[in-house]
Write a structure and sequence with these properties.
The protein is an alpha/beta fold. It folds into 2 domains: 38 residues, no CATH class; 203 residues, Rossmann fold. Helix content is 33%, strand content 15%. Helix 9 links the parallel strand 6 and strand 7.
C-alpha cells in the first residue's frame, strides 16, 4: 500500500538481471575469473595487487614502513624535490596492476579506464576538486593515429567526471616526436622528452593561476611528467599535481626513513 514504506521488487527487471548474470557473468578485471561485483578484482588478484597506502611521502607518495606524520618527506624528495607538488598512484607496476595497464594500452580494453580512473580519483582525492584543470599526458599525433586513442586521456576523462573538474585533452600537446621510453636509461628518458611538450600560444591564458592535475597510466623515472609540469608551470599554472595508475621505478618501492621539511 502507498505510504506503508514497503519496498516492492520489480520482478521482470530482477529476472532479466539474473538471466544476464547467468549468460554474461561478471569477470575479474585482471584474470577473467568470476566475481560477485561489477568492475572488481577476484580475491586472488586483489591479494596480488600492490596497492600504495598511507603512510607515504607527502611529495612522491612513496609508502613509509612506519607512520611519521602527514607532511613527512622521503630522503629522495628532500635530495631532489620534484617540479610538481605531489604524486599519487594507485599501485606498484607489477602483478595485476601491470596487467591492467598493458591491457588498456595495447589490447585496447578501453572499458578498463572506468574502474582504473575511479581508483586514481580516490588516490588523488586530497587535491582533486571542481577547480581542478585535468590534463592527460599527450601522445604525438602519429602514435595517436596508430593506437587510435590515448589511454591517459581516457583515464583523465573518468577522473574529471568523478571529481567535477575541467577536462581538457588538447590543451597540453606533444610538439615533437620522441622515441619510445621503454628500454631507455633515466638520463636518456629525460633527454628524450626535453622540450617535447608545449601549449598553444592562443590558449595559454586558460592556464593562468589554475591548479593542474596531470594524468598518466604509469610513471617510471618521472621524466615525462616532469617535462609536462615544467611546460604548464611556465605557461602560468599555479600548481601541478600528478596522478598515475602505477609506479614502475624500483627505487620508489619504499621509503624507510622520513624527514619533516
Amino acid at each position: 500500500m502507498p505510504g506503508s514504506g514497503r519496498k516492492w521488487i520489480d520482478v521482470p527487471r530482477a529476472g532479466a538481471r539474473l538471466a544476464l548474470d547467468f549468460l554474461l557473468p561478471m569477470r575479474c578485471l585482471s584474470c577473467d575469473r568470476r566475481v560477485g561485483t561489477e568492475d572488481g578484482l577476484c580475491p586472488v588478484c586483489w591479494q596480488k595487487m600492490q596497492f600504495i597506502e598511507k603512510p607515504w611521502c607527502y611529495r612522491l607518495g612513496i609508502p613509509f614502513t612506519y607512520d611519521v606524520g602527514e607532511d613527512a618527506w622521503s630522503p629522495r624528495a628532500i635530495a631532489s624535490p620534484p617540479v610538481f607538488d605531489r604524486l599519487r598512484s594507485v599501485a606498484f607496476y607489477e602483478g595485476p596492476a601491470r596487467d591492467l595497464v598493458l591491457a588498456l594500452k595495447f589490447s585496447r580494453r578501453r572499458e578498463l579506464a572506468g574502474p582504473m580512473g575511479r581508483w586514481m580519483s580516490r588516490a588523488g582525492k586530497e587535491f582533486l576538486g571542481e577547480q581542478s584543470l585535468i590534463l592527460p599526458v599527450p601522445l604525438r599525433w602519429v602514435r595517436l593515429l596508430s593506437r587510435r586513442f590515448n589511454q591517459a586521456a581516457d583515464l583523465a576523462k573518468v577522473i574529471a567526471a568523478d571529481c567535477g573538474g575541467q577536462y581538457e585533452p588538447d590543451l597540453l600537446r606533444r610538439r615533437k616526436r620522441t622515441r619510445q621510453q621503454v628500454g631507455l636509461s633515466a638520463k636518456d628518458r629525460h633527454r628524450n622528452v626535453r622540450s617535447a611538450f608545449g601549449i598553444d600560444k592562443e590558449r595559454e591564458s586558460e592556464l593562468q593561476g589554475r591548479h593542474v592535475i596531470l594524468i598518466d597510466d604509469v610513471m617510471t623515472t618521472g621524466s615525462t611528467v616532469t617535462a609536462c609540469s615544467k611546460t604548464v608551470l611556465a605557461a602560468g599554472a599555479a600548481s601541478v599535481n600528478v596522478i598515475t595508475f602505477a609506479i614502475a621505478d624500483p627505487s620508489l618501492r619504499s621509503a624507510d626513513e622520513a624527514v619533516k621539511p
